[in-house]
Design a protein that fits this description.
Mean pLDDT: 94
Number of strands: 32
Number of helices: 20
CATH topology of the domain at 531-650: GMP Synthetase, Chain A, domain 3
Low-confidence stretches: none
Structural class: alpha/beta
CATH superfamily of the domain at 531-650: ANL, C-terminal domain
Bound molecules: 5'-O-[(S)-ethoxy(hydroxy)phosphoryl]adenosine
Radius of gyration: 24 Å
């Protein structure tokens, strides 16, 4: 059996950064030994571990069953009853947290708004009543297509309050992508806003909704927040569209009571790209997800009462769900939310915001860090960053140069960095170094979080040696594991539980482990790309391209890119009568942008007369990756049907 994975073995020793004594002394977990003790307990005595760690959360009925496992399917805290919003909101009422700021909102134009926990509770209760007025009941799906405004948090929590699973769709997705997701989950109501600003210009979200709904039979109502103003050219469709403010005014808070649901009641569906076919609706349920988000936030960000915590992720991605909404609010934290682009009006914007609001924790993505490095240190040096005490990264491997810059220039060598590895599917952080307990190594995500059992294996499921590359897997279920792919249990099993024997969760990433047990994740090994932290399925891009009249066949691959992590390169063959020229390349890039969203538009298109295929007709992607990166062809080409195509691809 072929057991090698093709992932290289590494040899270099990495630098260590131990937390300072000053930092340790204020930490929740302040030594490696403490971390190890808690970790051991989480694995060996999960019942008592999770009971204790979740004790701050509100359950209407506590659980007696911790885990029920049936092959790849796991249920957690099965007999508990709860409403997730009671842990995020109601539990803070009548405590010191009631009047604490929950959300500090910074508009792209510099406007500020704040909401205390009491105010957020009031707004969520009222909006829950609005949803009920619009006919939404427990179990109905609600699509949310909004920008970074406080109301999007209200919308998500209001859905959770009535037990209606939400599906937030990133505002950068185009109408077709939006429609596909709305139809897949059968949303009854769509929540949107007129427009969101992007570098001073309106992104007309409501117009995109109108286009998407031309063929979305399940949708009965659209609730529209007027945020941007007249330039958004937003009109309401009589009978279908409802003005947000008017609906809130008409609502009665008495109808906003929390619906009590079972532990496994669906909380949300979040679509993500897979290696094949259409995007997958990753399903997260109530109790396990909440516990995962809550406990990981508390330990990984080592939170303190007076923190001002800023997670820069958009609410349309999993990071925005777990670490902008459910994790921090269930911990009673003050969260900063920024509406706009990191470079608007200039590259100093992030540092200005940190200075202005005295942010203590910054959680952002390597791609942003690399862009800041390129913009120049002068933008950073203009601002006082002394409020910061902890830094985090997520979304892709961070290269040691970017890590070091983040550590030196932003954290001024005072702030530990947590490099957090996780996925839409895992729901919460799986790997990191707890900031006061364990040394960080630049480029290495570190050690497992509580309850997580990672391994690196060959394709026969046997563990690799230290520093030998292999498939990154998780050996046992954790509370916030996805429960299934919405409406497609079979795809869930096939996607995550078949490539490696032994009923283990296959992440789709490759990794190494060093002699200290630290894991270094090196990126996707399936056909999913990570472009500027956005997961893009090559299959989706290819299917968009062959949908264009000029394209006969297309193959999308990633090439290493200094700024974006990966750039998207497409190789295409054309139908007769179309010229292989730059005009067509530009048209095709725009076509994908219009189909999926601008962030998925190819960086480069190369034309050829044929794509390299094996004799059995499979496109040789590894070879295309080498060509795209300008490398020598490394793999075996003996099965290549027509060797002459390679030369053409190089120059196409
Ligand atoms: C990658 C984002 C290395 C990885 C939370 C994973 C990372 C995919 C890291 C999930 C990290 C995320 N180091 N790679 N710290 N964090 N990734 O679903 O390839 O948008 O499989 O979830 O991002 O992306 P997703």
């Amino acid at each position: 059996m072929e057991t090698r994975t093709g992932i290289d073995t590494v040899s270099a020793e990495q630098a260590h950064h131990e937390p300072s004594e000053a930092y340790r002394s204020k930490s929740r977990v302040s030594s490696k030994a403490d971390y190890e003790r808690l970790y051991k307990e989480s694995i060996e005595q999960p019942d008592s571990f999770w009971k204790r760690e979740a004790s701050q959360l509100t359950f209407r009925k506590p659980w007696t069953v911790t885990l029920e496992q049936n092959g790849p399917f796991a249920k957690w805290f099965t007999d508990a009853e709860l409403n997730v919003t009671e842990s995020c909101l109601d539990r803070h009422l009548g405590t010191d947290t009631e009047n604490k700021t929950a959300i500090i909102w910074e508009g792209e134009g510099g406007a500020n708004k704040t909401l205390t926990y009491r105010e957020l509770h009031e707004q969520v209760t009222l909006f829950a009543a609005v949803l009920r007025d619009q006919g939404v009941t427990t179990g109905d799906r609600v699509a949310i297509y909004m920008g970074m405004v406080p109301e999007v948090v209200v919308a998500m929590l209001a859905c959770a309050r009535i037990g209606a699973p939400h599906s937030v769709i990133f505002g950068g997705f185009a109408a077709d992508s939006l429609r596909g997701r709305i139809n897949d989950c059968g949303a009854k109501v769509v929540l949107t806003q007129d427009a969101a600003p992007r570098r001073g210009k309106p992104v007309k979200l409501k117009q995109t909704v109108d286009e998407a709904l031309q063929d979305a039979p399940s949708v009965e109502k659209v609730v529209v927040l007027q945020h941007y103003g007249p330039e958004s050219e937003c009109t309401l469709l009589e009978g279908r569209d409802v003005d947000w403010a008017t609906a809130v005014e008409a609502a009665d808070a008495k109808n906003g009571a929390a619906a009590v649901v079972g532990a496994e009641h669906p909380l949300f569906i979040l679509y993500t790209s897979g290696s094949t076919g259409k995007p997958k609706g990753v399903l997260h349920t109530s109790a396990g997800y909440l516990v995962g988000a809550h406990v990981s936030t508390k330990y990984v960000f080592d939170i303190q009462e007076d923190d001002v915590y800023w997670c820069t992720a958009d609410v349309g991605w999993i990071t925005g769900h777990s670490y902008l909404v459910y994790g921090p609010l269930s911990n009673g934290m003050t969260c900063l939310m920024y509406e706009g682009a990191p470079n608007h009006p200039d590259w100093g914007r992030f540092w200005e915001i940190i200075d202005k609001h005295e942010v203590t924790i910054l959680y952002t993505a390597p791609t942003a860090i690399r862009a800041f490095i390129r913009a120049g240190d002068e933008w950073v040096n203009k601002h006082d960053l002394s409020s910061l005490r902890l830094l985090g990264t997520v979304g892709e491997p961070i290269n040691p140069e970017a890590w070091n810059w983040y550590y030196d220039k932003i954290g001024k060598k005072r702030c530990p960095i947590v490099d957090t590895w996780w996925q839409t599917e895992t729901g919460s952080i799986m790997m990191t170094t707890l900031p006061g307990a364990c040394a960080a190594k630049p480029g290495s995500t570190g050690l497992p979080f509580f309850g997580v059992a990672p391994d690196v294996v060959r394709s026969d499921g046997t563990s690799v040696a230290d520093r030998e590359g292999g498939l990154f897997i998780l050996r046992r279920p954790w509370p916030s594991i996805l429960r299934t792919v919405w409406g497609d249990d079979e795809r869930y099993v096939r996607q995550y539980f078949t490539d490696v024997p032994g009923n283990v969760y296959v992440t789709g990433d490759g990794a190494h482990r060093d002699a200290d047990g630290y894991f270094q994740v090196i990126g996707r090994i399936d056909d999913v790309l990570n472009v500027s932290g956005h997961r893009i399925g090559t299959a989706e891009v290819e299917s968009s391209l062959v949908g264009h009249e000029a394209v006969a066949e297309a193959a999308a691959v990633g090439r290493p890119d200094d700024l974006k992590g990966q750039a998207l390169v497409v190789f295409a063959t054309l139908k007769p009568g179309f010229a292989k020229d730059d005009a067509l390349k530009a048209t095709l890039k725009a076509h994908v942008g219009k189909d999926i969203g601008k962030f998925a538009a190819p960086d480069e298109i190369r034309f050829a007369d044929a794509l390299p295929k094996t004799r059995s007709g499979k496109i040789m992607r590894r070879l295309l990756k080498d060509v795209a990166a300008g490398r020598d062809i490394t793999g075996d080409t003996s099965t290549l049907e027509d060797a002459s195509v390679i030369e053409q691809l190089r120059h196409g």
